[in-house]
């Protein structure tokens, strides 16, 4: 019998997570220091008691959204596993929710299986290809999408925003002679997405855009789907912190995480108006602004370390209040189970080539 690497290790190290491990490796000694300081290697699991394991992975998006003031949410429908198109359409009508909509798995990460659905036939195909509980959301037309990483400390009362990322969706601008495919190939970031774009658009990629004509190609604001992340640190001020503090205070047991949202304009953002929160991610939320192409690696490490320190501070304060961390053995078991789900080893290794 040949030796086999366990599937969860195959997935972690050979497929989608290896860039994270390469980036995180120099920060490993600092994580060990923070673990000793916080008296647990799983200190981060005591940060958000309202979310299972503080939102490390596997949490229900719909359960988290239910904690937020509904005035900040888009129209949303949750479908149980195995729901039919007829059941979905009844739920959509009950919420006065029309196409286009966004469909996503209730438990997911990195933009996996998040799709914009334009009609009933597209929804039927999505339902048939999914084997999970599903969220259907209003496609919010607001032009600005942000990721706002907020924190508040339960004992000291310190609060703030440690990161804002501005999402620039994947798009191309015509020159009057190049096809969309050629424009994608000429961009170092976008050419990685070409296989996905070929599946989505097919022969339409051979179209030639007029000079100056802009074409949006991906409506999902995820780094893994071609979205460019730009630093929005210049947007942070006391007024904006107060806006998100007011939102967060209505979520008992939440102290650190990233609000992924759309807003009509910056003036409304500072007034706390015309904000639609698409998701709230927990303790593993990254300071997304570090992916700005203009930032250097030293800045990325500095800001990531700062975010890790904030996580440790909150954990220490919550532990003083009696919040328990997830035991290391239990967390290890959860990690193994999480990374063993889904694709088989052959599929994962094929993608890794």
Please provide a written account of the structure:
By secondary structure, the chain is of the alpha+beta class. It folds into three domains: 22-65 and 142-168 and 229-335, D-amino Acid Aminotransferase, Chain A, domain 1; 75-138, Dna Ligase, domain 1; 171-217, no CATH class. The chain is 36% helix and 17% strand. The strands form three sheets. It has a five-stranded antiparallel beta sheet. A hairpin with a 6-residue loop joins strand 5 (144-152) and strand 6 (159-168). The longest helix has 24 residues, at 297-320. Mean pLDDT is 88; it is low at 1-15 and 342-353.
Salient structural properties:
353 residues, 11 strands, disordered N terminus, 4-stranded antiparallel β-sheet, 5-stranded antiparallel β-sheet, disordered C terminus, Dna Ligase, domain 1, 36% helix, 17% strand, single chain, 3 domains, 13 helices
Give a quick rundown of the structure.
The chain is α+β, with helices and mostly antiparallel strands and 353 residues long.
Supply the CATH architecture of the largest domain. 2-Layer Sandwich
| Sequence of strands across the biggest β-sheet | 9-6-5-10-11
**Which class do the helix and strand fractions yield?**
alpha+beta
CATH structural fold name of the largest domain: D-amino Acid Aminotransferase, Chain A, domain 1
- The proportion of residues in beta strands is 15-25%
């Amino acid at each position: 019998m040949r030796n086999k690497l366990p599937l969860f290790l195959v997935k972690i190290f050979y497929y989608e997570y290896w860039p994270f491990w390469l980036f995180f490796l120099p920060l490993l000694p600092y994580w060990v220091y923070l673990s000793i300081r916080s008296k647990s290697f799983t200190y981060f699991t005591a940060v958000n008691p309202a979310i299972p394991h503080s939102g490390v992975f596997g949490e229900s998006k719909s359960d988290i959204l239910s904690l937020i003031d509904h005035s900040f949410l888009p129209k949303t429908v949750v479908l149980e596993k195995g729901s039919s198109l007829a059941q979905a359409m009844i739920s959509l009508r009950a919420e006065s929710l029309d196409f286009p909509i966004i469909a996503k798995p209730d438990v997911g990460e990195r933009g996996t299986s998040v799709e914009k659905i334009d009609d009933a036939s597209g929804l039927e195909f999505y339902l048939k290809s999914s084997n999970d509980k599903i969220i259907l959301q209003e496609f919010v037309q607001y032009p600005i999408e942000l990721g706002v990483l907020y924190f508040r400390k339960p004992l000291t009362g310190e609060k703030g925003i440690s990161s804002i990322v501005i999402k620039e969706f994947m798009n191309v601008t015509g020159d009057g002679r190049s096809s969309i495919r050629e424009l994608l190939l000429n961009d170092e970031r976008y050419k990685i997405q070409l296989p996905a774009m070929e599946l989505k658009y097919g022969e339409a990629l051979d179209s030639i855009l007029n000079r100056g004509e802009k074409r949006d190609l991906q409506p999902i604001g995820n780094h893994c789907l071609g979205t460019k992340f730009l630093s929005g640190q210049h947007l942070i001020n006391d007024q904006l912190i107060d806006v998100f503090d007011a939102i967060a205070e209505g979520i008992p047991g939440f102290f650190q995480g990233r609000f992924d949202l759309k807003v009509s304009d910056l003036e409304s953002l500072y007034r706390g108006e015309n904000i639609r929160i698409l998701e709230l991610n927990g303790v593993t939320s990254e300071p997304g602004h570090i992916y700005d192409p203009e930032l250097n690696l030293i800045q990325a490490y500095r800001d990531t370390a700062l975010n890790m320190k904030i996580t440790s501070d909150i954990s220490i304060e919550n532990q003083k209040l009696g919040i328990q961390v997830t035991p290391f053995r239990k967390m290890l078991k959860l990690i193994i189970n999480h990374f063993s789900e889904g694709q088989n080893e052959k599929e994962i290794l094929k993608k890794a080539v």
